Amino acid sequence: MQHSSIPHRLQVLAVWAIASLIGLLIFNLGGLDTPQTYWSAAKPSYLQHVAFWDSEWYYRVATQGYPDSTSLPIGQDGRVGQNTWAFMPIYAYLSGGLAGLLSANYYTCAVVVAWLGSALAALGLDAWMRPRVGKAASLLGVAIFFTCGPAIILQLPYAESLGLALVAIGFAVLAKRRFAWAMVVFVLAAFTRPIGVPLGAALGLWWVWEELRARGLISTSRFDASFSSARVYADADPYAANYDAATAVPNEAAIASFETAPDLTASASFEAAPPAIPAPPSEAGTVSPSEAGAVGTETTDSAHAGPQAGDSETSGPEASESATSAIASFEATPIAAGAESSPGYDVVANYEATTPSNAPAPAPAPPALPSFTPMDLSPLPLSSKDRLWLFVTAAVTCAAALTWPLLAWIATGRMSAYVDTETAWRGVDLAPFEAWINRSASFGGAHAGVIGLFGVLVLSACVLSWPQLRQLGRLTWMWCVCYWVYLLIFFDPSSSVFRMLLMVAPLAWAVAARLSKRPRAALAVLTVGLISQVLWVAWVWDYGSISILWVP
Predict the structure, then answer these.
(1) pTM summary value
(2) Count of the separate structural domains present in the chain
(3) Beta bridge partners of 249
(4) Is 65 left (phi over 0), alpha (psi -120 to 50) or beta?
(5) DSSP 3-state assignment of 74?
(6) Residues annotated as region Disordered (predicted)?
(7) Residue range 57-73, pLDDT digits in tens
(8) Of 354, 387, 404, which one is at a domain's C-terminal end?
(9) Distances 486 to 418, 480, 496 between C-alpha atoms, Å
(10) Domain that residue 342 falls in
C-alpha cells in the first residue's frame, strides 16, 4: 500500500478547508436571498450576515460583560430576563481581546477566531478518531462532518468551533494518559460552552466502568468486549513507538534501549535452539513425526507463511539422518576464540556451512514495534494509578461545570441566576424532559406529537446502540450517550438542536468507517450533507428568507 508524501495533518486541513469554503459559498449565496431582518437590511453584507442570532450576545459579553445584582434584568412577574450569563466567556473574550489588540471590528476578529477554532476542531477530531478508524476513514470523517448542515456554524461568531476543538483535543490527550493536560483542556471547554456537565458525567461513568472491570464484574461481558473488538490502527498514531503494550503504560527507558541497542533477543533465540534444517526432497511428499521434532520452530513460521517458491517436502529415514547429522555438525563446530562477531551471526555461519546449497538461510524476524492502543480501547482493565487519575480528571471537570453557576450567584446575589437565565428563552421553569413533551405538541399536535417524541427516543436508542459507534471506544461511546441524555433532560428542542448535536461528532467517523471502501455511498452521504447545508442556511439562519406553502 502506497502512502502519500503529504503529511497527514496537512491532508486533514486540506479536506477541512475545501468543505469549509463550500460552506462559505453557500452561506454567502444565502445572504443574497435574505430579506430585511431585525439585524440588518435585505441582502446583508458578510459581516452583517454573520452577526445574526446569538452572535450579538457574544458581542455583548465582549463589550459589556455580565450583569451584577443591580443590572440583572427582572420582569414584573419576578422572572429573570434574557442576559449574557447564558453565554460562556472564553470565546467572546478572545474575540474581543483580539479586536482591541488590533483595533479591528469585533465581528471580523470573531470570525477569525471561529475559523481557527474550526481548524483546530478538525485536527483534534482526527487525532481522537484516527487510531480507531485509520487514516483514510478519518479523512472521510472530516469531510462528512464539515459538510453536514449545521457545520456552517463552526465558521460563524459562535463558540461551537472552539468548544468542539477543546473537547476533541481533551479526549485525544486523555487517550494517551496525559491526565494533567486533559484536565486543563476540559476546564477551558467548560468555560467555552455549557458542556461541563455531560463531560464530567462521561468521565465519571467511565471511571465507574473501569472500577467494575478491575473487580472482574463486567470485564468478561460481551458488551464490554464490543468496545475492544475494533482494529487499533497503530500506524495511524504519531506516538505509536512511544508505548509499551506489555505494561500498558509509557516506557521511555524501554523505547530508548530499543532504538539504540542491537536485537539481542533474536541472537539469544539462535543460541537457545538449533536452526531448522530443511531435508532433501522425498517421493512421498509428507513430513514424518521425527522430522517435525527435529525442525523445531520452523513449523510455526511455515504455518503462517504458507508455501514458498523453492520449498521441499521430505519424509522417511533420509530426512531424519540429514537433520540429525546437521545438528551434530552444528553442536560440534566451535566458535573461534576472539572472533569479533555476535553469537547470532556465528550460528548463522555454522548453519550455512551444514545445510544443502538449495535451502535458503532463514532471516531473523525484525523486532515488533510496540503498538499504541487508546486507553478506552484496551482489552485489559486500567491500572489502579490510571483509575485514580481518571477519577481526579472527572472530579475537576465536574467542579468546573459547577463553577460558572457559582460565579453567577456570587455576582448577582441570586442563587439560581444562571439557571433562571437559561430558562428565560423558554419562559418556564426548568423541568427535566418536560421541554421535549411540550415541543412535541408544538411540532406534531397535542395528540400525534407524542408519537413523534416516541420515535425520537427509539431513533436515539438505535443510534447509541450502533456497534460501529461502540467500536470507537468506551469513552467515545459514553460521551455520546451522556451528551445525548443531557440534551433530553435539559434542552429545549428548538431548531437549535441541530447545532447542539455537533458535539456528537464521532458519529461522522462511525459512518466513515463503514463507507471508507464504498466510494459511491460516501459520495451520496457528502451530497446529502451539502444539500442539508443549503436548507440550514435558508430555513434556520436566514430568518424569513424562504416562505414555503406545504401542499400534500
Answers:
(1) 0.75
(2) 2
(3) 244
(4) left
(5) strand
(6) 272-325
(7) 999 999 999 999 889 99
(8) 354
(9) 17, 10, 15
(10) 264-354
